[in-house]
Every structure is written in C-alpha cells, then in structure tokens.
Design goal:
Elements lengths: L2 H4 L4 H13 L1 E7 L3 H12 L4 E4 L15 E2 L3 H5 L3 H18 L5 E10 L7 H25 L9 E4 H7 L8 E11 L2 H14 L3 E3 L2 E9 L2 E9 L10 E11 L5 H10 L8 E12 L8 E5 L4 E7 L2 E5 L3 E2 L11 H12 L13 E10 L13 E7 L2 E6 L5 H16 L18 H6 L1 H8 L3 H11 L3 H10 L6 E2 L2 E5 H10 L5 H8 L2 H4 L8 H12 L3 H21 L5 H8 L26
Parallel strand pairs: 1-2, 1-10, 2-7, 4-12, 10-18
Antiparallel strand pairs: 3-6, 4-6, 5-6, 8-9, 9-10, 11-14, 11-15, 11-16, 12-13, 13-14, 17-18, 19-20
Helix pairs in contact: 3-8, 3-11, 5-6, 13-14, 15-16, 16-19, 19-20, 20-21
Length: 604
Amino acid sequence: MSRYTAGQLSPIRRAADLRRLRGERFDVLVIGGGVTGAGAALDAASRGLRVALVEARDYAAGTSSRSSKLIHGGLRYLEQLEFGLVHEALTERGLLATRLAPHLVRPVPILVPLPSGAGPSALPARAWRRSYYGAGVAAYDAFAGLFGGGRGMPLHRHLSREGARRLFPSLRADAVAGAIRYYDGQVDDARLVVTLARTAASLGAAVVTSTRAVGLIRQAREVTGVRVRDMEARPGSPDAEFEVYARTVIAATGVWSDDMSRMLGDIGARPGLRVRSSKGVHLVVPRSAITGEAGLILRTATSVLFVLPWGGHWIIGTTDTDWRLDRAHPAASASDIDYLLEQVNAVLDRPLTTSDIEGVYAGLRPLLSGEADSTSKLSREHAVVEPMLGLLLVAGGKYTTYRVMASDVVDRAARRLGLVRPSRTADLPLLGADGFPAMWRDRADLARRHEVQVGVVEHLLERYGTLTVDLLALIAADPLLAAPLAGAPEYLAAEVAYAASAEGALHLDDVLTRRTRISFETAHRGTESAEHAAEIMGRVLGWDATVRAREVEHYLGRVEAERQSQRMPDDATADAARLGAPDVRGFAADRGAGADVAGAEATS
C-alpha cells in the first residue's frame, strides 16, 4: 500500500481504527486533534511506536482552525526580548516553507507602517521610529538567516511614503511616513492539521474523530488508558463507550486542559499547570474593500492587528481578551467587531463598515497562566508535565512551533518507554509535499492532460499539493465533480467528495468550516452551499434524505446563532446567543433518540 493510500481517512478506515481502539494496547494514546495533538501523533508514529489519537469533534475544530493563518516568528516577541521563542519559531517557519509543507506554507508580504507627524519637529521622531522598527525587522531577518533552517522568505525592504502607498494604495497618506516590508508564512491552519493527521495515519497511527475522552483508567498510581465515547454511536448502544489502553497517554487539549484537571481530580491527582484562554476575533472582508498588494501589521493599545490578503479576501484581526465562557464555540460580540473596525479604519482612506464584512470567526489561544494581568502579556512558551505515571500534559506554545511541542512531549514518552530514537519530523515531508516543486512547475502540462483549466490545477495544488492527482482522478471518474460548489465558485464539488472520502469529514460543518473555508469566505456564510454539499457528502457517507436534511438544518442553525451572537453587545450575551445552536456531534435528533439525551456534551 502506498503512503498516500495509507493516509486516506475514509469511512472504512474510521471503522477499522475504531476496532483497533477497542482491541489493541498502544504505546502512545494522544487526546486532542488540534495541531499539537496531530503533531504528537505523527512524531510518535514516525519513531515506530503504536499510536492512537482521539478527538471529540473534528480535526482543528477548536483553536487550530481559528488563527490569523500565519506561520511566523512573532516579530513582537523580539521587543519583549523573547529571543529563544523567535529563534525557535523562525526555524520552524523555514522547515515548513521549504521542506515539510511547501504546498501549504507560502510567503506573504507584510508592511510595518511608520506613523507620520506634522512639521519639522516631527522629523527626529520619524527618523527614530524608522531606525527602531528597521532594527527589529533586520534582527528578525538575521534570526531567520542564521537559524531559519532554510529561509523560504525574501528579505525586508524600507519604503518611502510614496512606495508604501504604491504597494498599499488604501493607506491614508497622512497616516504614514513610510513603511518597512517584510515576509512571513501564510497557511490554511485547518488544512495543515488534517494533513498532519493523515500523515500520522499513513505511518500506521489509528486516528479517529468524534471520539470524546470521558475519563482516565488507572492501575494503582499509573494511568493505563482512557474511557472514550463514540459521538457517532446511537445513545444507549453497547458500542457507545469503550476503553482504550496505552502505555502512555498524552493530553494535548489546549484550552480544554481544565477538563483533564477535572479527570485528574477524580482520581486524586493535580495537573501541575494552568491554562488561560485568550479570545481572538477576526473579520473577513472582500479583496475589493481594500486596495493593496501586501498585508499590514499595526500596533494597538491591547494587541497586534494584522490586515492580511487571503485569496479573494482580507483577514483583519485580532483581539486579545480573557475568555471564561463556552470554550467549544467562543463568540464574537458587536464590541469585538467595532473594536477591529475602529483600529483598521485609523489607517485606511475608505473606512470599512459592518456592511463590508463577509465573515467573522473567533478562537481561543491556550496561554500558560502566570502573574500577568492581561492575556496579551502571558508567554507563548509551552510546558510538558507528568502529573501521574503514564500521563503527560502539553500546553501553551503557538501554532508555528507545534512540531517542537510534539517532539518535546514524545521525547518524554519515549524515555518512559525505553525508546532512544530521536524525533524524525524535521526531515519528514507531510503528505502532498513530496514532488510539489516539480508538479507546480509543470502545472500547465498537468492541466492539459486532465483537460481542466490551469487555474483549477493551481487552486488544487495550493490546497492539496501532489495529492491533487487524487482529486483529478475523482473528476475523471465523475465529471460532474468538476463543477463549482453552489454558492462558492472558488471551490469544486470534488473537494467536498474528497473531504468525506479521504479527509475524515463526518458532518457538513466539517466541510464548510474546515476542509473549505466557505463558512467565513462568503457573505451567506455557507448557507447557499449547504444543500449541494450535503448531497455530495451523502453519496459518500450513505446519508438518506432525512440525515441530509438534518445536517443542513444543523448547519443553518449554527450560522444563525453566530449571526445573532455578533449583534450582542458583550461576551456574556454573545455566548448565550451562540449556545442556541447545539453541536451536531452527539445531538439526539440526528439519531432518533429521546429528548433526555438531547443536550449530550461535545467538547474537544
């Protein structure tokens, strides 16, 4: 079996992996299907260990699909003198952009605007700002050159006011005295996580979504496994809950680390770390709303604000505020949206309004809790602790350094298991990366052979890399899959079919929110695509008309709840509105069960 075939997360593969969870004893069991958990499963599998991963919802369903879509060193961390973190992150950026995932991570130019001032007295201040910011960006490039593991990004450049406005005409002329252009990496965060999970599966890991860890199993003072609930099983079924045994359990649960704390409390142990949740909200507006060929990074009173090109759109974010409410579905309030518009409008020649907004998404950063009064001052360093024999917790960190976090926690597990093999993931290309430069170079020939437009092949290559041939094979077998998805002409029907047949998508929300980004890239938020996508998924997953209707109903309800939350004035009212739409996983109406289990909990 080829590596690509072994990495297909099909419905048949899910059933087989569920049987493995019930019947095998693993070396490592990972709880959590975000970027750190998927990275840990890949790291452990690449060392030859028997690995399983369980995730309560979908890959990247929480924090890992709701970021600023950047693979970056963290320019602001230089100012905070966190040189080690910048060094580490730039090394990972170079690896991802040049070796591990060049099909998913590509350079994006970003401008650092230099504030203007009026009159001759402002000249010294402008000169000081250019020197100060210039030194920071130069240091950033120097770190990347010295430690970047293959830069993968162009060098920075100073621009005059006129040069900055040529590159970004929407900048207000009176708001900037010039700019510095530098580069970081851009990524579809959810696609990277799915690719990590598939790569782990290709090396033999059993990876299963909709499987929620509900309790720890221990023998004397040692954790020996986890009790798991299959969220797709009919409530009351003897297969709904089962035990998974492992020599080591790794919890990579991010902002859900408190859930692990409760499980540890049930067996008389303490977690050894605390995680605070910081909410980050992003707006998405059409590319036509702002004229520019690069992104922006702006300093605000409470956070750093990015304005980033994203295909035919711009992403504007983020906020940085403490969040203590529902972690599965953090809600953006009207005040969050107003704050972002106010900050970005300070430098734009045509102010944005709420009518420009196509989409909004909110995510939670897991920050190691400290003495800082605000989440923006908490460190992005990570920690690995072992509160009980057989149980390791990893928390903190940042998306870019997922591989380092995974390596650190698996190193601890490997020492416990008596394994001396080091991490291999720095030299292990993810699925779709092998042969990508050559396939990109020859994309016109590939399009001609398959009788599709070059633009279609480019779109697929930037999302699937060399796995593009699998989607082209689907189209060859069913030419109707070459059509655009209803309401979302940027995506092909084939991508929905592939998500269900090879990428582990189980529900409509998985496809419209994470395998594609239709839920925030369209003004209708995916409601006009739901029927068509459900029809395509249904053919792969065997849905009848009733299930298709319920999937669409759930999705439409989720969109309406999010729209309602974004009209609420504060976090509390926004959270209450968002909770009006139950999660599709474990929801009794989908399984014909009674109302007594209609509120079944489904958290990552």
